[in-house]
Design brief:
Distance between the termini: 45 Å
CATH class: Alpha Beta
Protein name: NAD(P)H-dependent oxidoreductase
Structural class: alpha/beta
Pfam family, one: FMN_red
Keywords: Flavoprotein, FMN, Oxidoreductase
Largest sheet: 7 strands, mixed
Organism: Streptomyces marokkonensis
Number of domains: 1
CATH superfamily: Flavodoxin domain
InterPro entries: CE1759_FMN_reduct, Flavoprotein-like_sf, FMN_Rdtase-like_dom, NAD(P)H-dep_FMN_reductase
Number of strands: 7
Strand content: 15-25%
Radius of gyration: 19 Å
C-alpha cells in the first residue's frame, strides 16, 4: 500500500499537517495491513512553491516537483488537505494540482482520494463540498463520501476522531475494492489495459454494452 499525502499548510507546525498525519495513520490502521508494509509519503506543497510558479511560465516542473508528481501518480490512495482562505482552498493548493494537470492531465484518473481542510471557524466546513469535491471530480478522481473539516474548536473534540476514522475506513475500503475490481484488464492507477470487446483506446462500443444487458433468449 502506497499512500501519498498532499499537505498545503503554510506554518511549521500547522494544523493542516496535523490533520493530514492523523488521516494517514487512521487509513493505514483501517487497511488492516502491518504498519511496516505501508508506505506513506508526505508532499509539503509550501516547499514546492517556487517550482510550481516556474511550471506555469516554462511548462516544465523542476526536479522536486516532478518527483512529487510521480509519487502522486503512482499512489494507491491520496489524502489531500488544505487550509481555508476566503471560503475556499488555498491558492497554493490549487496551483499544485493545476501544475500537475499541465504535466499529466490523467494523473488522478481513477485515483481514490480523501479530502480534508482546516479553518478557524466551522462556518467554512462546506468548502469540502462546494470547492474541493468539484475540483477532484473534474480531475477524474474517485473521492470518498466523507470529507474531514477541522475548525479550531474541533481539536480535542470526540467528533473529529469519529470523522477521521470513518473517512479513513472509506479510503482503505475503496482502495482495496478498486484493486480487486481492476483484474487483469486494468493497469495500476485505474487506466485501461486490455478489455475484451474494447477497441484500441480501451472503449467498449455502446451497442455491446446494451447487448450484455438484454435477457438471454
Amino acid at each position: 500500500m502506497k499512500l501519498v499525502v498532499v499537505s498545503a499548510g503554510l506554518g511549521v507546525p500547522s494544523s493542516t499537517r496535523l490533520l493530514a498525519d492523523r488521516l494517514a495513520a487512521a487509513t493505514v490502521a483501517a487497511a488492516g495491513a502491518p504498519p511496516a508494509s505501508a508506505e506513506v509519503q508526505v508532499v509539503e506543497v509550501r516547499d514546492l512553491a517556487v517550482e510550481i510558479a516556474h511550471t506555469f511560465t516554462n511548462g516544465f516542473p523542476g526536479r522536486k516537483l516532478s518527483a512529487a508528481f510521480e509519487s502522486v501518480a503512482a499512489a494507491d490512495g491520496l489524502i489531500v488537505v488544505t487550509p481555508v482562505f476566503s471560503a475556499s482552498y488555498s491558492g497554493l493548493f490549487k496551483s499544485f494540482f493545476d501544475a500537475l494537470g499541465v504535466t499529466d492531465a490523467d494523473a488522478l484518473a481513477g485515483k481514490p482520494v480523501l479530502m480534508g481542510a482546516t479553518g478557524g471557524t466551522a462556518r467554512h466546513s462546506l468548502v469540502l463540498e462546494h470547492a474541493m469535491r468539484p475540483l477532484f471530480a473534474y480531475l477524474k478522481a474517485v473521492v470518498v463520501p466523507t470529507g474531514v473539516y477541522a475548525a479550531s474548536e474541533d481539536w480535542g473534540a470526540g467528533g473529529l476522531d469519529g470523522r477521521i476514522e470513518r473517512a479513513a475506513g472509506e479510503l482503505a475500503a475503496l482502495g482495496a475494492g478498486l484493486s480487486t475490481a481492476a483484474g487483469p484488464g486494468v493497469e495500476r492507477g485505474g487506466k485501461p489495459g486490455v478489455t475484451p470487446g474494447a477497441d484500441a483506446d480501451g472503449i467498449v462500443p455502446f451497442e455491446e454494452r446494451l447487448a450484455a444487458l438484454r435477457p438471454a433468449g
